[in-house]
Design brief:
Layout (H helix, E strand, L loop, with lengths): L4 E8 L10 E7 L15 E3 L32
């Protein structure tokens, strides 16, 4: 039986105020526990949970004037 490897996104956990997390990908088995330390540097890390497409409601305008359910990811998409 072949086990599928999944690519997970991890980020470093900032240790100092103003420190910006770095993101990277690690391939693991789905049955593997989430990592807490970077395998090479030993830095504290956490797995990032990414959302899927989900259900999009495009039938009405939100209060912000954008089409859909009123969600804006903060990237200037609702302008």
């Amino acid at each position: 039986m072949t086990r599928t490897m999944t690519t997970y996104v991890y980020q470093t956990i900032p240790q100092e105020p103003g420190e910006i997390p770095r993101y990277f990908e690690i391939r693991q088995k789905m049955s593997d526990e989430a990592l807490t330390k970077h395998p090479e540097s030993g830095e504290a890390i956490r797995r990032v949970i990414l959302g899927g497409f989900g259900l999009l409601n495009t039938s009405k305008k939100s209060s912000s004037g954008s089409i859909g359910g009123g969600y804006c990811g903060g990237a200037g998409c609702c302008g």
